[in-house]
Amino acid sequence: MNAPNTAVLAPPPPKTLEDMRLPVVMMRDILLKTIFRKNVELVSVLSRAICLPVPVTQELVDMCRTQRLLEATGTLNAQNGNEMGYQLTDAGKARAMDALAQSEYFGPMPVPLDVYREQVKRQSVRNMQITRAQLTGAMGHLVLPDSLLDNLGPAVSAGRSILMYGPPGNGKSSISNGIRDALGDHVYVPRAIEYASQVITVFDPIVHNEVAEAAQDPTALRRVTRFDARYVCCERPTVITGGELSLNMLDLVYNPTARTYQAPLQLKSTGGIFIVDDLGRQAEPPQSLVNRWIVPLEESKDILSLQSGEKFEVPFDTLVIFSTNFHPNEIFDQAALRRIFFKIKIDGPSQANFLKIFAMVAKKRKMPLDESTLIHLLKNKYPSIDSVYANYQPIFLIDQIIAICDFEGIPYQMTPELMDRAWANMFVKDEHVVK
To answer: Torsions phi, psi of 307, nearest 5?
Structure first.
């Protein structure tokens, strides 16, 4: 992987406990729980476990020693740079057990919500400026009319909501993925954030792709200061949902056993893209889903609720892409449509672009093109569906022919007869089925 992009200002590591801006009792308890659960003794190991610099970790350790919750083991470990070891006192074990009864969370110190807001501004998706070359490069595997890129470019650069609509099978999902690839740079995702002494985990390896840190030159006189280890440097995230999306997936997820929260999908996608594919196929009406997004889309903030019912604001910095096969007027009222900044229709390809796609797919699948078969397809088959072309059709037809050739044990070839067999599988006759 590439090194983190310097265009995004990295969060600086804290230098003192005061820089943490977290409740002191919370930090102390997370330290004690981590020592108890991970059985660590050395400050250098503990600092990696709680993702804090060694001096800040030492401050916490010294505070706990003053409160008689930790004690030195009295021995220096020669294998670890003569570091002093520390262990929990009986009072420290009791405090760790009490703290675990309140919350099972231990490990990386969370980032205060207010501090995270500052980082979101530094790496906002609305700060992105996508060039035509970047967008074209990311869409290079697609055959798209220039007019579509004319509309997509400003929409992506604005970092505002996009509604893509049009007949199925014309690449709305592929275009959404291409937009994701065009972003290209990196953001810093907190492992967890804190609000009102509650921990909300954010980093999710399923959603977030971590970027390997660039190796530092061991001969350099000065080492480059790393970013705050409570964050993970990642590619701009992409969350893709489809028919399974429901309104409760946009709420905080509370774990009653661990007594911690997990961030909802839109918070995990901060700084990146949230793709709602196949809008209109969900159990929730499309209007209800968009109503849920009205405040976030207009005010760049979302409102979440704790188990106690307390509501609080989190940043909403996400490029939302809605994709649907329905006409917007069928599923939204005009008020909802006003909230969606860009509306882009994705039509089927022209005949010329259809043939380009066909040739591209055939080359990729190692299927020899046959002019007479293509003429047969265009003159005899497509008129039966009013010559309506779709981007998925070349892939479908060629893969069907490949499957037939494999079954018949013949070399890959394109003939009118094989095309007829492939065509027959692309549509289902409208007929009555006796039950």
So the answer is: -60, -30
